[in-house]
Structures are given as C-alpha cells and as structure tokens.
Protein: Alanine--tRNA ligase
Organism: Flavobacterium gillisiae
Amino acid sequence: MKSQDVRKQFLDFFESKGHLIVPSAPIVLKDDPTLMFNNSGMAQFKEYFLGNATPKSNRIADTQKCLRVSGKHNDLEDVGFDTYHHTMFEMLGNWSFGDYFKEEALPWAWEFLTEVLKLDKDRLYVSVFEGNEAENVPFDQEAFDIWKQFVPEDRIILGNKKDNFWEMGDQGPCGPCSEIHIDLRTDEERAAVSGRSLVNADHPQVVEIWNNVFMEFNRKADGSLEKLPAQHVDTGMGFERLCMAMQNTTSNYDTDVFTPLIEKVEEITGLKYTSNEVKDISEEQNKTNIAIRVIVDHVRAVAFAIADGQLPSNTGAGYVIRRILRRAIRYGFTFLNTKEPFIFKLVAVLADQMGEFFPEIKKQQGLVTNVIREEETSFLRTLDQGLQLLDNVIATNQGKEVPGAKAFELYDTFGFPIDLTALILRERGFSLDEAGFDKAMQEQKSRSRAASEVSTDDWKILVEGNTETFVGYDQTESDAKIT
Ligand code: ATP
Ligand code: MG
Ligand code: MG
Ligand code: MG
C-alpha cells in the first residue's frame, strides 16, 4: 500500500467513526511561548483540553507535521543512526474531547490496524500502565481488560510511569497511556526467542507505532488525583513507521516516503544506498548510508519549516532550522564528498511527492529551493576555508595531539564545527585536546558577557578580546557558529 493510501485510510476510518478531519497545524509555532515547533498532534488542541476553548467537534482526526529537535523531545542525534526516528515526521491522530474513551479508542485502534490495514495480529504488542503507589496512580485495569479481548496476555506488557503515563505538568490533566508496538523481526529471529515479550528498547526492529493517551485525572496542588469531569482521548501514530509495516520493510527509509529522495541523492552523487543495517560509522559504506539517511530526513524538516514561514536565521527557531540544514550539508561534505550545493535539488522531488496532501510545499517550492541553495553555498565556503586552515594546523603541529585552543580558533573565527575537526583529526591519526577546547570556549563566553554592555542598537562595537565583528544588522559572526 502506498503511503498516500495509508494516510487516506486512517483519515477515512476515523471519519467513518464520526470524526471531523482537520488540516495539520503549521510545523512552526509563532504564538506559543512554551514551544518552538509542533512536536505532537495534540499541541494544536491544548486549549480544548484545558477547557479554555471549545472544539468544532468533540471527535477530531488529522495528520500533524511534527518536528522533534529541541526541548523535551529531541531526536536529532538519533537521526541517521537508526531507521525510525526522524526530525520531521507525520503524526496521525484521533481525539475525543469529553466524548468516547478507552472502550471505543482501543478497539478502534485494533480494528484499524488488523482489519482495515490487515497487519499481522501476531506481530503486535501492547503496553498498559502498571500503576505507581508512591504517586497515587492506579494500574490501568480497564485498558488491560479491553486488550485481553484481542491480544494474548503474554503480549500485553506492563509499563512504568516514564513510558506509560502522561502529564502536562506537576499539576493539571494527566492519565495512563497504552502503546502499540510492532515486531518486524524475521520469522527465524522470532522463533529463536519465542514467548519473550518485547518492546522496542529490547530490539531495534520491535518498534512503537501508536500511543493512546487517556486524560483521566486532574492532579491537584497537594499531589492527589481526582477524576476529571470530562475525560479525553489523545492518540498519536508515527505515519512513516506505519508505512514501514505496511510496505513490509524494516526501515522507514525503504518506504516510498523516502525512496524517491534517496534515488535523487544517488543520481546526484553517483553513490549507492545499500543497507539499513545500523553499524559503526567508521566503515566506509556505513558512512554513505548514514549520510544519505541524514540528508533525506533533514531536507524534509527544513523544507516544511521554510514553507510554513520559518527561514533559517541566527536566533530562536530560525537557528534550529539553520543547524539542521548545516548538519545535512556537513554529512554530505564529509561522507558523500559533495563540494557543491545539491540539497536544494531535493525540494522538487519532495514537492512532487507531498504537494498533493500538503499544498504549502508546492506553493513555496521556489522560495524553499532558493533559500536552501543560498545556505548551502555559504556554509560550503565556510567548510572549505576551515579545511584548508586545518590542513595547515596538522602540517605544523608538534606531536599527535592538536591543542584545544587551535581547534577553538577554527570554530570561533571561521564557524568550523568542532565535531568535524575532531573527525578529520581522527581520520588523519591525530587526536584533539578536548579539555583545552572546552576551556577556550568557557573563556570566550565570559569575555562576551563582559563585552555585551558596549553594544549600541545597530552596531556592535569591537572591544579588545571580543571576537565579535559587525556583519549585518541581524547577524554577528559569533552568533553564526554552529555547535
Ligand atoms: P519513541 O519511544 O520511539 O521515541 P515516543 O514514545 O517518543 O516514541 P510519542 O511521543 O508517544 O513517541 O509519539 C507518538 C508516536 O509518534 C510514536 O508511537 C511513534 O510512532 C511516532 N514517533 C515519535 N517520535 C518519532 C520520530 N522522531 N520520528 C518518527 N516517528 C516518531
Ligand atoms: Mg521518543
Ligand atoms: Mg516511546
Ligand atoms: Mg510513546
């Protein structure tokens, strides 16, 4: 089943259960001081749960563009190194605002997965909150009893507060959740460990796909719980992971969400994406595979953020976007040997593929392409200069350890990323004095603090010991570094 159809099946199914289908909220949040990007389906409905606004319908379903690169949910460092965490992904969700509860939500989830999508029942595991006496929260007997009608008991896993209990904060709405995991191991692998209950922490191919949260209680200031007068359901399912299960692959990158992008990178670089096995980055072919995963993932995040109005910049959300793009450029530069801009060429592929469901990406295609190309051009120049300087450092270095202060100079003056310095040194048989680098960084921070009083509105004044130079009204060199 094509990814387009997977999405449509989900929305049609919940429409048939009386849900109003709404569009995704923008990925970038402009009016929420607590959150930079949408990182889950429920963010756009927060006010309904808090009772500050009334929804158009008490049953809603959608697919939400999410970004998990900052704050409480930050998956950035995993991206490329596993095959099922992305920066940007779609979260399919259904909601009940004071309407249906566990008795409907869990059987519907099961019906959708096993009857509509016809996923193999034997490969599904579910988890239920085990309870926590110290925190006054009971075992979720109701969810357990509902699941028992569908799932053998040895595949109902009891989960702890960290994984199976949701709370908005120290006070306010909270409740148990129940997750659904899918086992994508081969039959042989499964036979070898039969009878053993798994969740994805135990095996990389047993993957969480759907989380059902039941907002059942209100936590009061004294820590005690009371039943909420109106109970709510909030669910989130990883769209790309569901496509993986539906397309019989063991990696999100082998689904049609990613293969057109991967093929384009192969065409541009002449390299081949060969394997989803996640191994050490020190092997040559793994470097290629990891870099390709990073690039096809990151271009989606950056393209959708720009299409939703967040340009790369040096502050706030714009800086996060710039860093994601620079991470992609750096992986290409280092592991795919791409010395010319090329990521911008992926935007056309993305627009073709996603434009029907998300028209914003087609509408903004020109802008997105240009912005990415310009960012690539300027950061590649930085990388190139830095590399030459690093060659000089290596040629004149005494011994096999490069002083931290030298690496800091490259970082501070030219924006050359420290992890890239470390990597290149390692490849050439040198090591980096990391403690020296950290010390130089600390010293620079105290110098900038001391110097910050002498800036006027538009011009930054260069004072002794402060490396900041004026490069434009909205950009200073020391802000432009990536860390
Ligand atoms: P995981 O444990 O795999 O990190 P999670 O528990 O953090 O997932 P939830 O917050 O429960 O995820 O989000 C609901 C669903 O969204 C998950 O069940 C998963 O299918 C999907 N999901 C979460 N994070 C990502 C991500 N970084 N990339 C792709 N899908 C994701
Ligand atoms: Mg997570
Ligand atoms: Mg989880
Ligand atoms: Mg979860």
